[in-house]
Amino acid sequence: MDLYQKEALLSVSRLTVHFHTDRGVVKALDCAGLSVGRGEVVGLIGESGCGKTTIARSVLRVLPPAGKIINGMVLFSGQDLLSMKENDLNTSVRGKAITLIPQDPFNSFNPVFAVGTQIKDIMKWKGNAENSKEINEKQIHEMLEQVQIPSSRDQLKKYPHQFSGGQRQRLMITMALLPGPSLVIADEPTTALDVTVEAQILKLMTSLVLGRGISVLFITHDLGVASQICERIVVLYAGQDMEDAPADSLFSDPRHPYTKELLQSLPNPEGKIRDIPGEVPNLVHPPEGCRFHPRCSRATDHCSRHRPEKVVVTADHWVRCFHPIG
Amino acid sequence: MSGLRLAWIKFSRDRLAFSGFLIIFSLILVAIFAGVLAPYPEDTFSIHPSARLQPPSLTNFLGTDSMGRDIFSRLLFGARVTLIISIIAVGTSLLIGVPLGLIAGYSENWLSELIMRIADIFLSIPQIILAILLAQSLGPSIANVILALSITYWPWFTRIVFAETRTLRQTVFIEATQALGANPLRTTVLHVLPNVSSSIIVRSSIGMGYTILTAAVLGFLGVGAQPPIPEWGVTIAESRQYLPEAWWYATFPGLAIFLVVMGFNMFGDGLRDILDPRIRRGFE
After folding, report:
1. Which CATH number is associated with domain B70-283?
2. What are the tens digits of pLDDT across the range A222-251?
3. Which domain covers residue A189, as residue numbers?
4. Do B178 and A62 touch (CB under 8 A)?
5. What is the average pLDDT value for chain B, to the nearest integer?
6. Same domain (yes/no): A87, A207
7. Does A102 map to a domain?
8. Nearest chain A residue (CA) to B276
9. Bridging pattern class, strands A8-21 and A98-101
10. What angle do CA A293, A295, A298 make, to 5 degrees?
11. How many distinct structural domains can be found in chain A?
């Protein structure tokens, strides 16, 4: 059931992923889905451990060895990424059509090579093969200018540890944009940075991405950050997609009880902190039906037995709940 | 300042490592120019019964042996034998051990188990005993000494490379490399190997010392190099029946082994300090 007939660049549907661990089978994702349109910035939001990163990794099929994709479909530009050959995925998708900005800018560079070496290597490896060395160097120079890193020879000769966290994330953005991707997956790119740097990086990302028409899947646990840069937000809870709406209507008119609780738990000027009653479920033995029902004030018996289907609110807003708000 | 220059400054300040380096450097020079430096180069093989067991003097710095050959000249040529044996043995161990370690560390399946259990079997037997057994059963010759040393030393490289590869595999940058579409070959050779190289270099230096010692032991026990090859261990073995009167006969080859092994170990320890990027960071 696809509500979005507009051209989707990436569409993930009914994705189920299990991790086989010593504690049992962790049911990390349960029929979760999302879609990202061309040129669209979509936020994927949820608490730690709800499966945000698992979705990102499933798209690129780089799950840790314990993770298995049980079911689902990942379509990217009409191609099925889950059945694509590993080799084709390596040459045409990973690091080329889809690039990743990892969460931790401190450890995402190879510590033994100079930053310039790593950036040039990406260009040689993933850039346009017909481009000469000079064109590549020129592109690197321009990109570094745009992310506001001085592209002097001395800078490029520096090692990753000689840059600050913010600078490293700028360099990471450079590496993610240089191959000319159509989709960038940003996995909590600013979480490890302090607030002022975070704001700069977000501004930079938005301007760079919008100017190029690149789609972004922006993963974050921070509603404030999501509201700043995302056009549309998908709410994920314990491996299930709960609500999908344009950013402004999600904030003004949340329909899912979980979304509402999440919004209310934001720190407010009165200084009151509200938390969501109950605990994040153990995904080895997740609750039956809707996984939020044990913590939900509107839950009924029905919720603990059946998984709700998507309920259309408006043309671009749906919610997965038997008893939606409003 | 460039990284190399910094490393050199740091290295030259480390007295132990620097002495180790000087010892190794002299050993290499001596091995190359043995023919020029030796006062009696022909004494490697020719014998002079009239001048046997002469104590150190102006004509023979370190005395002569039971066949009247100049011990100093033979020591210089022995350096050549020693160096050739240990370089080839360590090189072969590297070629076997490092790729196996990378494969075992990167793949997390039966292959990894198989490689590491085989390495464990080799490591469970004291190396020197295994080397003696192998050299004995293969027949005494320099080629077999090299073979025995390589077969017994590769698991050390495998174990180190395995452990570091396993750790690196979990790091963000290796995961990022996979997300960029690097296949296992590219990931291991281009990204894991450079990060492991400092440990490999350090281990190689210490391994040089170890193989020199073991080669000497094999020579001494008669299962390694054979007389009249001027190998140091062989010379010590020959000297046994003339001790303690001809003290110079065993002392100088013994000292040579001691110095060279110590040199490689001190150099290896110093390299460890320099090559560790965390320590280099502290210096800048």
Report:
1. 1.10.3720.10
2. 888 898 889 999 999 999 999 999 999 999
3. 8-97+182-319
4. yes
5. 88
6. yes
7. no
8. A112
9. unpaired
10. 60
11. 2
- Interface probe with B: pick from A55, A58, A62, most Cβ of B within 10 Å: A62
CB contact under 8 A, A108 and B277: no
Find the closest chain B residue to A56 by CA distance.
Answer: B179
Taking only the tens place, the pLDDT of each residue in B207-250 is 999 999 999 999 999 888 888 888 999 999 988 888 888 888 98
Q: Which of A34, A43, A129 is nearest to A76 (CA)?
A: A34
State whether A102 and B175 contact (CB < 8 Å).
yes
Other Cβ atoms closer than 10 A to B21: 20
Question: Across the interface, which of B171, B179, B195 has its CB nearest the CB of A112?
Answer: B195
- Please tell me if residue B184 touches chain A, with a CB cutoff of 8 Å: no
B284 at the A interface (CB within 8 A)? yes
Name, in order, each residue with C-beta under 8 angstroms of A162's C-beta and a sequence gap of 6 or more: B284
- Using the Cβ of B187 and the Cβ atoms of chain A, whether some distance falls under 8 Å is answered with no
The yes-or-no verdict on residue B88 having pLDDT over 90 is yes
Task: Flag whether residue B272 sits within 8 Å of chain A, measured between CB atoms.
Answer: no
Q: Do A108 and B180 touch (CB under 8 A)?
A: no
Same domain? A131 vs A263: no
Which residue in A has a C-alpha nearest to residue B179's C-alpha?
A: A94
Touching check for B66 and chain A: CB below 8 Å? no
Instruction: Examine the domain organization and report whether A50 and A172 are in the same domain.
Output: no
Cα dist. A93→A98, A284, B176, B180, B282 in Å? 6, 32, 14, 8, 39
Query: ω into residue B228 within 30 of 0, thus cis?
Result: yes
Q: What are phi and psi of A144, to 5 degrees?
A: -65, -35
Whether A14 and A55 share a structural domain: yes
Q: Report how far residue B81's alpha carbon sits from residue B67's, in angstroms, rounded to the nearest whole number.
A: 20
* A219 and A171 share one domain: no
pTM of the model: 0.81
